[in-house]
């Protein structure tokens, strides 16, 4: 089980690195916002994997707050962009 968790942690870190490249290269602000939302999901997965590896649920509130922050951020960016398109 430890090997599977180590492999999944490595894959999540690789995915986070690729998403950071996408944030840097994204041609529009919506691409960057979507990439940051994906990065928040990946970081939440990394925290969940660490909770499984260490059998310590102390980081669970951090994971919940991080998830809620990502959700609120995504909704606010979507509303801001929708309002900006309505004005045009």
TrEMBL record:
> According to its record, what are the GO cellular component terms?
plasma membrane
Keyword flag Phosphoprotein: no
Keywords linked to the UniProt accession: Cell membrane, Membrane, Transmembrane, Transmembrane helix, Transport
Membrane topology of the entry: Multi-pass membrane protein
Its subcellular locations are: Cell membrane
Which residue spans traverse the membrane?
33-52, 59-82
Claim: NAD is one of the keywords in the record? no
InterPro entries, sorted: MrpF/PhaF-like
Q: What is its main location?
A: membrane
Recall the GO molecular function terms of this protein's record. sodium:proton antiporter activity
Q: Which domain of life is it from?
A: Bacteria
Q: Into which family does the record put it?
A: Belongs to the CPA3 antiporters (TC 2.A.63) subunit F family.
Q: What is this protein called?
A: Cation:proton antiporter
């Amino acid at each position: 089980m430890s090997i599977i968790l180590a492999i999944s942690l490595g894959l999540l870190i690789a995915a986070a690195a690729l998403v950071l490249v996408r944030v840097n290269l994204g041609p529009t602000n919506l691409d960057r916002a979507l990439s940051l939302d994906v990065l928040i999901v990946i970081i939440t997965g990394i925290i969940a994997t660490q909770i499984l590896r260490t059998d310590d649920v102390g980081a669970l509130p951090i994971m919940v707050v991080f998830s809620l922050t990502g959700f609120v951020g995504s909704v606010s960016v979507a509303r801001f962009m929708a309002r900006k398109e309505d004005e045009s």
